[in-house]
Specification:
The protein is built from twelve helices and four strands; from the N terminus they run αβαβαβααβααααααα. It has 273 residues and is of the alpha/beta class. The chain has one domain (9-248): 3-Layer(aba) Sandwich (Rossmann fold). α3 links the parallel β2 and β3 (86-89).
Length: 273
């Protein structure tokens, strides 16, 4: 098995900063907005955006709910100061609570709503700033469906979507992200005590190595079992990947004409250049 995933953080830094700059400027846009959670993913994405566009073109939004850990807000402001970007804090508690009224028992339902409210605000602010929303979902989350469709998984461009979580940790060290952010347990802060690894039932080191063998190397189930992975673990992860495919694609359009959006009409982003 792998000791760690193959990864060159210097190369990734170069490619991703160029990606951000090229992908937004081809549309005549020069700004991005990003939700700053105080976590490693948004911290890395914001840092790459500043390197690509300059600090004056990056707008950070801190969007806490009443159960958001104070440490998360403090770490978000730590990145604002480090990157010297403009920021705004908007407490979303009144919006969420006005919809749900008394606390609901279904934490996942409420968590999804919180994620979507945050993204609604980011897209509204992107219009205000003539900016693109910069995504922060990583490859591990996208494959496992560990995110909210049209919530934290939404964006205009996503520089982190082909990086596993553990690779983002390597990149964070290359970028000089504060150790207190790199080292803390990853969490979406959707309810008190929530952690990514607690919900997934895996550590990121464990699942990322498995996903690399399964997805990037395309190893067969037999080969994975021979490597020591348990069959029930393999089946569970493959089931998650299959079940969450809908989150990774645009809505499927029923075909009625000769050229259907997303099926026959599939020009690349820069087709008009």
């Amino acid at each position: 098995m792998l000791d760690k995933l193959p990864f060159d953080p210097i190369y990734a830094r170069t490619v991703l900063t160029k990606f951000i700059k090229d992908e937004i400027e081809k549309f005549g846009i020069y700004n991005v907005v990003i939700g700053l959670s105080g976590g490693i993913d948004s911290s890395v994405a914001a840092t790459l955006a500043v390197e690509a566009l300059g600090s004056s073109n990056v707008f950070g939004y801190i969007l806490p709910y009443k159960t958001t850990a104070r440490e998360s807000v403090e770490d978000a402001y730590l990145m604002v100061e480090k990157l010297n970007i403009r920021s705004e804090e908007i407490n979303i508690t009144p919006i969420v609570d006005s919809y749900f009224g008394k606390d609901v028992q279904d934490k996942r339902r409420k968590g999804n709503f919180i994620a979507r409210i945050r993204m609604c605000i980011l897209f509204d602010r992107s219009n205000y700033h003539s900016a693109f929303v910069l995504g922060t979902s990583n490859k591990t989350e996208l494959l496992l469906g560990y995110g909210t469709i049209y919530g934290d998984m939404a964006s205009a461009i996503n520089p982190l979507g082909d990086l596993y979580k553990t690779q983002i940790r390597y990149l964070a060290k290359e970028l000089g992200i504060p150790e207190r952010i790199i080292g803390k347990p990853p969490t979406a802060d959707l309810w008190i005590g929530q952690t990514d690894e607690g919900e997934l039932g895996f550590t990121y080191e464990e699942i990322d190595k498995f996903l690399y063998h399964l997805v990037d190397e395309r190893l067969s189930i037999k080969m994975l079992i021979d490597m020591g992975y348990k069959k029930d673990t393999i089946d569970r992860v493959i089931s998650l990947i299959k079940r969450n495919q809908y989150k990774r694609t645009l809505p499927i359009v029923a075909k009625l004409s000769q050229r259907t959006v997303g099926i026959d009409f599939r020009y690349p982003r820069d087709w008009g250049k």
